[in-house]
Amino acid sequence: xxxxxxxxxxxxxxxxxxxxxxxxxxxxxxxxxxxxxxxxxxxxxxxxxxxxxxxxxxxxxxxxxxxxxxxxxxxxxxxxxxxxxxxxxxxxxxxxxxxxxxxxxxxxxxxxxxxxxxxxx
Length: 121
Prior knowledge:
Number of strands: 0
Distance between the termini: 26 Å
Shape: globular
Helix content: 40-55%
């Protein structure tokens, strides 16, 4: 919601591309900030906060997500930096709201994170 709102407030055009990708769906929305980078950074930071032993892996993937958006020409560097920043701030806020009273739980006692995907038929 934050990213979507900012996209239509700033209304920055996306970078010009030198190649013709198969999918053009990202060309219809404004560029700033990068939603892919923001959402994956949020996931990566939360994973790192709950499971510090694996922190380098999701954080590294968040960096690669941002880099890939620049590499394929979907975003400018500032779009990705804004996405990383928004993702970090959202993750810290969510973590702080959900762990106010029991911030000292050991990693081993935390319940596993379960990903549920609903497919409508």
